[in-house]
Amino acid sequence: MSDAVLYSPAEDGVVVLTLNRPETRNPITDAGTIAAVLAALERLEADPEARVAILTGAGKGFSSGGNIHEMKPGGNLNAGSPVRSRRNYKIGVQRLPLAFAALEIPVIAAVNGAAIGAGLDIACMCDLRIAAESARFAESFVKLGLVSGDGGAWLLPRVVGFSKAAEMALTGDTIDAREALACGLVSKVVPDAELMDAAQALAARIAANPTHAVRMTKRMLWEGQRVDLASLLEMAAPMQAIAHTTADHAEAVAAFLEKRAPRFRGG
Questions:
Q1: C-alpha dihedral over 83, 85, 86, 87, to 10 degrees?
Q2: Phi, psi (5° rounding) for residue 130?
Q3: In what order do the strands lie in the sheet with 107-111?
Q4: Got the DSSP string for 85-134?
């Protein structure tokens, strides 16, 4: 796997993925990094030991989004031709939100430093977000005369609500960690030095639960954002039927009745 994304193997069910281009604040829109993120997600989904993942950035920033030096015609995504540029987006950065949405393992974004543009959007592709006190967030595409080409207009309103998303996207202004917590962009803010410990603690709370129930719960939460209630209930019934047959469900019931801690084995 490319060193653009580091994959730390599961420890107690928790995998750590690190965007690893600290010299440029971890941009994610170049072909090499996109391929590395996709490969890491594919490995994560197939990892029999993985139950939860943490996504963070190396160095002082989470992700700067796009590399501004590659935005001139002929650069990474801007091919200088609308037809070729459209193709670049479809086979490039737009593959990321689809891959995150298809992933069944929950992902926690541990946001250190700045998450700007596509960097904010990749944080929103994750299921949960916690932030260091130094974290900063901006849906800043309009500042460069652009729109979010990676799904931010779909993702951000579902995280913070339409009004706050509109404010962030239409002004392009930066908000700090305190404001991110207030609007629900993140669920927790901690001192910088405690960020990964806090992310690991949250991951451990998720990993402690039955694996199949966690995966199916994540799938239902994502599907619930795009289908009506009746359709979600149709999905819930067979998933619940499957859950009833798992060894972990039987263990949970037995442990409750016997007033002891459950011992889940992922079965």
A1: 90
A2: -125, 155
A3: 5-11, 14-19, 52-57, 107-111, 128-132, 188-190
A4: HHHHHHHTTTHHHHHHHH--S-EEEEE-SEEETHHHHHHHHSSEEEEETT
Torsion region of 101: left, alpha or beta (phi above 0 gives left; psi -120 to 50 gives alpha) = alpha
**Residue 249 · residue 210 · CB < 8 Å:** yes
What's residue 79's pLDDT? 60
Strand pairing class (136-138; 114-116): parallel
**Cα torsion through 178, 201, 3, 222, rounded to 10:** -70
**Residue-wise pLDDT tens digits, 122-161:** 999 999 999 999 999 999 999 999 999 999 999 999 999 9
What's the length of the chain? 267
**Measuring CA to CA, which residue among 24, 51, 189, 174 is closest to residue 111?**
189
User: pTM for this structure?
Assistant: 0.92
In sequence order, the 6+-apart residues with CB closer than 8 A to the CB of 245 are none
Q: What is the mean pLDDT of the chain?
A: 93
- The pLDDT tens digits for 172-231 are 999 999 999 999 999 999 999 999 999 999 999 999 999 999 999 999 999 999 899 999
Q: Bridge partners of 53?
A: 15, 107
Report how far residue 17's alpha carbon sits from residue 207's, in angstroms, rounded to the nearest whole number.
16
Instruction: Please give the structure tokens belonging to residue 240.
Output: 């619940």
Alpha helices in the chain (DSSP H): 31-46, 82-91, 95-102, 118-125, 152-160, 162-171, 177-182, 195-207, 211-223, 229-244, 247-257
The model's confidence at residue 1, banded by pLDDT at 50, 70 and 90, is very low
Closest to 14 (Cα-Cα) out of 50, 47, 46: 50
Quickly tell me which residue has 């979600």 as its tokens.
232
